[in-house]
Amino acid sequence: xxxxxxxxxxxxxxxxxxxxxxxxxxxxxxxxxxxxxxxxxxxxxxxxxxxxxxxxxxxxxxxxxxxxxxxxxxxxxxxxxxxxxxxxxxxxxxxxxxxxxxxxxxxxxxxxxxxxxxxxxxxxxxxxxxxxxxxxxxxxxxxxxxxxxxxxxxxxxxxxxxxxxxxxxxxxxxxxxxxxxxxxxxxxxxxxxxxxxxxxxxxxxxxxxxxxxxxxxxxxxxxxxxxxxxxxxxxxxxxxxxxxxxxxxxxxxxxxxxxxxxxxxxxxxxxxxxxxxxxxxxxxxxxxxxxxxxxxxxxxxxxxxxxxxxxxxxxxxxxxxxxxxxxxxxxxxxxxxxxxxxxxxxxxxxxxxxxxxxxxx
Length: 361
Known about the structure:
Layout (H helix, E strand, L loop, with lengths): L7 E5 L5 E5 L10 H29 L7 H15 L1 H10 L8 H35 L8 H23 L2 E8 L2 E8 L3 H49 L1 H11 L1 H5 L4 H49 L6 H25 L1 H17 L1
Antiparallel strand pairs: 1-2, 3-4
Helix pairs in contact: 1-2, 1-3, 1-10, 2-4, 2-5, 4-5, 4-6, 6-7, 6-9, 9-10
């Protein structure tokens, strides 16, 4: 251990070099009240995440009308969230223990599932952002097909597995002597090579997809703002300038030029477009905000963990890792609800199901 920090352990590695080990799942030889509270909270969100994501999986799989590109990507996120239940359940248990009790194999499997799931989930969000960018900004061009979507999903899982293989070799269990007792921890080597691998993983697994997400949504919001300005101009013409001005404004707007509408229907159509653009804007901002809020702490934690041992500050604790996992499960709870509320087809299916249930009683 290093001072009062019972999440770190100093030892000599197999190469005879000094190395620091961080206990990811529990403090060494301790059962703190903080860990007990986090374990209970994480258990609640893990259970809720399981119910919501299994419900979303069933909703999409059993309704062919929902077999769209966006929904297949959403299905991928739900599969990832269900897989994350395994390491989350393991974390709930080990947080209440004084050491790792599940063996080396399960230590590697838990870490592998977390790494692969995180990689696939973040890149799926990036593909969703790109798909929406293509639909909104380049609607007349070729879009991502369902077959292409399935291929992209497979490629993401394959890349995630390949990136994880290099990290799994450095993850293992290690005996730690504390006083007269020997404890076991699930940890990772902190050599220079492992640090470089983690930094590369953070670059490819978070910063690159985050850049894609920000760029795509920035272009989408710019397109929406431009379209909103055109709609506002038409609305102003409808309100203040009469039918001659309406005709002149409609001539500038391609959507109204293609679809001939009579003056009585113009006001309602404009109001509908204004509402739709505002709603899309709010959803996009909320989606990006949720993504950054839930994932940024995990990236900062993994990045600082490499710096922490090099600089020698040793301020990170195991409960911080548990907090990161809690945020990931909160994200897994929020995302299914967000997609169901945002998707009109899903809401209609749910209404029909609820109506049938109420009529049966």
